[in-house]
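re: that chain from earlier
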Amino acid sequence: MPTTVYFFRVSRKTLRGHFLGVAAAWLVQSGIEIYRCFSRITNSGQSDGVNITEQAKLLVKKISGITIRCGAPLIFASFGAGIRATLIRPSMGVANSLNSSNTKKVFISKAEVCC
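^ sequence. v structure.
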């Protein structure tokens, strides 16, 4: 397999695997910031004079920061895995899992798994 194809496939698999964790972290952090923003607006009442437009701008700034903080490791991890895999070749089993034409999909019924 050519090195460029191998690099691309390793990077793609790493990106897919790492994406779920990053997406979960992004959702949690964004949800916390949205909750904090709305709780500040509702708890302040009319007397404090909390400016809603300033709170919205602050929320956008925080969400964009969270997106950058969560997205950067995703990109760097996939490129790093691709570079590492091209420098140090893994075992034959790992290399075969990257070839979609060489893998066989095995379906096990529930009866076979039991006992």
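Residues 101-115 have pLDDT under 50 and may be disordered.
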